[in-house]
Design goal:
Elements (H helix, E strand, L loop, with lengths): L1 H4 L1 H11 L31 H7 L3 E13 L2 E2 L2 E2 L4 E12 L4 E4 L4
Antiparallel strand pairs: 1-4, 2-3, 4-5
């Protein structure tokens, strides 16, 4: 769990290394506190614009971590490697001025 807690710092460092102005929001973003909006495909169903004013950001990178654990390789039933940590997630970018979601692809 400790390594998962440092994931936001790693993401921020990688974005900054690519020339982006990036910062971590240390508080969790609890979507229940934000107003619902009308459903439009490709758009956020919550109004996250208060984040823009509160933190001085114009885009928000949301990462939905959906799996954590360990993996290793096997030959039949014999392990052939040491266990390695595994994290699976799906990042989305929210342009806060228009609430449009964009799938993020790693380059």
């Amino acid at each position: 769990m400790r390594d998962l807690n440092t994931l936001p710092d790693v993401i921020v460092a990688k974005l900054q290394a690519k020339g982006y102005k990036a910062k971590r929001i240390n508080e969790p973003v609890n979507l229940q506190f934000y107003k619902n909006t009308d459903f439009r495909e490709g758009y956020m169903t919550k109004d996250l614009t208060p984040i823009k004013g509160a933190y001085g950001v114009d885009r928000l990178l949301l990462v939905n971590v959906y799996t954590t654990g360990a993996t290793r390789s096997y030959y039949s039933i014999m392990p052939t490697s040491v266990p390695m940590a595994q994290v699976g997630g799906l990042p989305f970018e929210d342009a806060l001025s228009q609430a449009q979601l964009q799938k993020v692809y790693a380059h």
